[in-house]
Amino acid sequence: MSNIISLLSGIIFAIGLGISGMVNPQKVIGFLDLFGNWDYALAFVMGGAVVFNLITFKFIIKKNKPVFASELKLPTSNLIDKKLILGSIMFGAGWGIIGMCPGPAIVNLVLLDSVVITFVLSMTGGMLVHKLISK
Amino acid sequence: MGLPFLGGIIIALATTIMLFFNGRITGISGILGNSLSKPTSEKRWQYSFLIGLIIGGAILLQLSPQLFQFEINFSYQEAIIAGLLVGFGTRLGSGCTSGHGVCGLPRLSVRSLVATLTFMGAGIITVLIRSFS
Questions:
Q1: Where does the sequence pass through the membrane (chain A) (predicted)?
Q2: Sequence ranges of the domains in chain A
Q3: What is the four-CA torsion angle of A45, A46, A49, A52, rounded to 10 degrees?
């Protein structure tokens, strides 16, 4: 049952990304172009999502018992270290170049565009490199 | 605000469903990164989510192709460099827009707030630098 929920969550997530405009790299780069021709529309994506989850997560964490699992698996680290900062800088730089973060890139695979496929393969490669060197 | 706001709510709904039923945080870079190692039955929820993203994309492309009316005008070099940065960076920094942003900020996680401000700042600076070249 939990796998069906995950599948459903993925489908809904993709639809949200598409409707919001996050799948459009030009729009994302326009949003990041704060000092140029700034397109602020995508600020409402994160805004809407955070407001919604502020309410629902609070309720779910208070209830503290997921329907199909024994416990909530929440991140426990509060560490603000070099890894967090350097990793986020690298991610932001890549995001600024291509205008796609991991979710929209995976959704855009349905376009069967060779550049999108190259990006996703390279992203997967970057994850594997991290896995190798962090052993 | 219109569609971006609605889209944001739908994205949050997906992560709320995941947390409410499965007790999991929907961090896409984490889900993809973890699904790359040896397959186990524990990872089925991660494969299911990733397949869901593709199915959702395919459904949307059929129903509303206008949402995908944009150019992907990047070179292969840009795709490769950006891919390595996004892949390695999200794993080193333990999250991306979904895990740190959509799920971390509502949990009032300072770590996620710092990560979100950092990757947004880095994205803004990257776009600024590239606008000069």
A1: 41-61, 82-100, 106-129
A2: 2-133
A3: -110
